[in-house]
Design brief:
Blueprint lengths: L8 H11 L8 H12 L5 H15 L7 H11 L15 H11 L12 H18 L5 H9 L8 H6 L3 E7 L14 H12 L3 E7 L5 H14 L4 E5 L5 H16 L3 E5 L10 H13 L3 E3 L2 H6 L16 H16 L9
Parallel strand pairs: 1-2, 1-3, 3-4, 4-5
Helix pairs in contact: 2-3, 3-4, 3-6, 5-6, 7-9, 9-14, 10-11, 11-12
Length: 342
Amino acid sequence: MGAPSQFDPGKDLAPLLEAKLTLSPRLPVNVFNRYLHEQAPRFRDEEIRSISNLYQTVLEVERDGDRLQELYSFYIALGLPVYIGQLGLSGSDSDLLATGHLLEGRACTSPVGLSAAEWQIAGRKIWNWGEKNLHIRDAQVLASELLTDPDVQPLVPKMKSLRPQRIAIIGHSFTMDLHWSSPSAFVPIVTAMFSRENPSLQFRQFQGGGLTSSRARKNFYDDAIAWHPDLVLLVLINRTDQDLADLRAMGGGFKASGARVISFDDVHDPDSTDPEKLKREWQMEREAGIEVAKVSALLAAAADRDRFSCLDHIHMTEPYHRQMAKQWLKVILGVPLTPASK
């Protein structure tokens, strides 16, 4: 397809072929390959094998963010399918779980989880990343949809007239585009909306999975404040007193530099469910000059709140990120936060 690749057949393929390894038919990749042949018999083996290989890789959870994404790029460049929707199969959570029950117990003992629920999560990951990497559903698509949403349309003139500014986001996985639970996250969705309506606003993300305030201060604070942002959003985990102290220091530092500093009262992170702990955070944030945007009640009252939590019961799905994108947009525009209609 003309795309650059670091793949070297002599180094990356020939040794495997020459080794003449005998692979067990009960390897997860072979179990899933046979299942797909049964479900989609009109497709060629290489079209099915590409998806099976992605499943094998995603079951090794620590490869989600690097090797798996490289495989997506490689297979898409070759014109091969990368998720079962391209084979005409369903990707509903219930159907993915039914598949998990069919596959459970078929594979040999492996260093990866192979319960029905783990097969289901693997399927959800491959489906969502497939649509994201093919740009069927990603931040740009969600941005287009939200710009026509009745809740957002009245805000578009304000978006267009907003002065040029720099907006920094320091956040954990709920702010990150890469995560599997949704086509994108509320931060990159709103960034994509402004790239269309007012590209004079510059957004810069400082991000990490499970990011605590102490890690954020150590890894990102100096670079973020040196960028001289006008507005800073902090979406961080605070487990210890030191985390709270570092959050206070960052908030005070950004505030002293002239930035408007924002934190949400609760983003439904399972790490932040203790009411007393939340009260301490809010008090400390106010003392540091951090604005606490109150979204928890709006999220709790949302009609689709039952669909917010994804299969791991930690991260959030597209309905959540759509709701949060509307509130994050309002925060940037300085308009009151109100319940979204859908």
